[in-house]
């Protein structure tokens, strides 16, 4: 039970009951009791605040793997860079291992970061990355499903259906594919799944 629940369940009823009893027995001390109540509430609030502030879960990145998809550019690239700075072992999935995005990560990041060719639309690519993570023996602490494409085409029946199939295969089924094959490792480590979406999906 949290401190807030304890406050609502035990402290406040006790305070109100004591207040009524004191008022009935000695009305002259009513003002003094109000001051006491005020100070008690302030003290409890401060104690609760400091308890919550110092009781935050501390995440130790050492020895934890985070898989990030779509690291060639944009959010994925910056996320991989930042996680490496924090001390995680980052597995950065890219479409082009020799591209500019992969090269920048190699130059700026530590040896903990691994660049892996990973097309989320291809089951073999996903399974190969998951197998490499298994072989490390380290827990898969999180996956960041960031890979996505945006194709700005007017929605009318004159467009080729392949346009929509390609978009869904990356943005929807790619996310499902990566999550599905990572799920056993995430369950084992009590890990996290972070899905990056676009406002274009509204």
Automatic annotation (TrEMBL):
Protein name: D-beta-hydroxybutyrate dehydrogenase, mitochondrial-like protein
Pfam families: adh_short (PF00106)
Keywords on record: Membrane, Transmembrane, Transmembrane helix
GO molecular function: oxidoreductase activity
UniProt cross-references to Gene3D superfamilies, sorted A to Z: NAD(P)-binding Rossmann-like Domain
Keyword Iron on entry: no
Keyword Acyltransferase: no
């Amino acid at each position: 039970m949290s401190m807030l629940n304890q406050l609502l369940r035990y402290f406040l009823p006790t305070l109100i009951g004591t207040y009524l009893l004191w008022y009935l027995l000695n009305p002259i001390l009513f003002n003094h009791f109000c001051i006491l109540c005020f100070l008690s509430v302030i003290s409890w609030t401060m104690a609760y605040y400091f308890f919550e502030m110092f009781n935050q879960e501390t995440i130790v990145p050492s020895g934890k793997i985070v898989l990030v998809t779509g690291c060639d550019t944009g959010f994925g690239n910056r996320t991989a860079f930042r996680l490496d700075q924090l001390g995680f072992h980052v597995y950065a999935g890219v479409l082009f291992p020799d591209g500019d995005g992969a090269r920048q990560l190699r130059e700026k990041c530590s040896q903990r970061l691994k660049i892996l060719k990973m097309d989320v639309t291809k089951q073999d690519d996903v399974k190969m990355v998951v197998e490499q993570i298994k072989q490390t023996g380290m827990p898969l602490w999180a996956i960041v499903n960031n890979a996505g494409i945006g194709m700005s085409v007017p929605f009318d029946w004159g467009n080729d259906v392949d346009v929509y199939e390609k978009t869904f295969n990356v943005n929807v089924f790619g996310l499902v594919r990566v999550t599905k094959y990572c799920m056993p490792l995430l369950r084992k480590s009590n890990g996290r799944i972070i899905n990056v979406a676009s406002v274009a999906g509204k």
